[in-house]
Request: fold
Amino acid sequence: MAEPQKYLPRLDEDESESDGPLLDPRTEQEAERIAEALVFASAQPVSETYIASRLPGGTNVPRIMARLKAFYASRGVNLVQVADHWAFRTAADLSFVVQTDEQEVRKLSRAALEVLAIIAYHQPVTRAEIEDIRGVQTSKGTLDVLMEAGWVRFRGRRRTPGRPVTFGTTRDFLDHFGLEELRDLPGIEELKGAGLLSGRIPSNLHIPVPVGDDDLAENEDPITQLDLEELGLLTPKGEEAD
Reply:
């Protein structure tokens, strides 16, 4: 990877991610180098919280990352934001160069694509709500495929009779599809034009406001160990796994 210039271009005041005191130039430059190295060395997106913990006190992390992002915008690799995490990714227009015949392409069935789209746009959503939107039953295997891919997760349990499990997307979902946040999802009309969500679309289907991984809706309870045991994701206490 090419060495960045000695000082990255400064953002105009109205372009800064957030206001904050500037460190002296030498310390600011060193903070940029450390942040760059932390992201480069990680195989997974790195959180701003972790980056901040490794930088000098008082460092304005959003401003540092915004400058690095601007510097790499025209390079062969781009610094991209995934929710509140950062990662280096091949520039979109050069992805064909690094593709190999050996790469495994994950292909989803039409049903899985529909379910994934409904979860992305309607989360938190229960299995019954997914089936109501699609107008057909959703097999457990379809949800299992999406969860094994790391794109869908259990969010919580709805505070309604039966306490159904709610589903939502993951940070890996955003990363895989090149999205910074859920607001970057294509519009409903684009999805319908692509043949997805081609059935009955509820009037309240919307692009949700992004929330943190641990944030729950007002009508959700967190997933507990007992819930995970009930869902078959953990071995009950006192029992040996097979």
Remarks:
- The chain is about 35% helix and 15% strand.
- The chain has a mean pLDDT of 77.
- The two ends are 47 Å apart (CA to CA).
